[in-house]
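The data layer described in this paper is built around a simple, fixed record for each protein. Because each token names a local backbone shape, the row as a whole describes the fold. We quote a single record here, exactly as it is kept in our systems:

***
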Amino acid sequence: MKNILITGAAGFIGSHLAKQLLADNRRVVGLDNLNDYYDPELKKARLAQLHDYDGFEHVNCNMEDREAVAKLFEKHSFDCVVNLAAQAGVRYSLINPHSYVDTNLVGFVNILEGCRHSGVKHLVFASSSSVYGANTNMPFSVHNNVDHPVSIYAASKKANELMAHTYSHLYGMAVTGLRFFTVYGPWGRPDMALFLFTKAILEDRPIDVFNNGNMERDFTYIDDIVEGVFRVIDHLPQPNPDWDGNSPDPATSYCPYRIYNIGNNNKEKLMRYIEVLEDCLGKKAKKNFLPLQDGDVPATYANVDDLVHDIGFKPNTSIEDGIKKFVEWYKDYYKA
């Protein structure tokens, strides 16, 4: 897979993945519209690092622009497409649900059509741990039913999995969906907890701690996420010969379709996460305890057995190491 399209290339995961692929002498076209959902200057700074490589090209366009996306696929011959662009955030989906439909549904079908008509060998797309929704059977397994989402963001990611399966069924497209679990690390998104907590603590402001601190998350360090995606790119999914329509397995299919969790396989209490951050900053947080927000779930925890078996990789970065690296980056980038 030498020629790769990454959508959301100026994003948190996309920029890290692009850098690793470019360092491996792949050619990367990065689609990103640099929207203002969060600070575009951070996105531009991520992109600036990618322009250091000869094999990188940035394309500024909206995924929901059908004509522009079609022209992009006509111009280039992509071996693999990694769809990471999305309107992210569970809580924002309660405020602006239409943006999730525009990017995550309309934009994704444009990517599917581009792959279909240009003979892309492998489509890898980001799903999310949020698809598990009201499911409380832990650790979350890709073989479990995920038909009860609790936010429009989660529903849009579940819809992506269904849409991808349909294209795999109809056109034999090789597609792999990756459910990411609470990604954190350097160059992270400013709307995510670690970023918000760090900024508030350094500015001597209280942090909002939801569900009165009774939250558990499978915090997964960015390098582990990227290594998982990097390995999946060259691992084309195969039809499951044992798939049975009388007892359908959600994670596999009779067509070349697979779903994997990428998580640390270790749920951590939110209060422990905050303690580690306090230690790294050398400063205690003022805490504003609040109830569980609509659309949120109290716990996530990834079963990664399929990832280990098929891809030969298991994330293993501790929150102690991961948060330390984030704090070092944050202090350097913001001169804090």
Q: What stands out?
A: The radius of gyration is 19 Å.
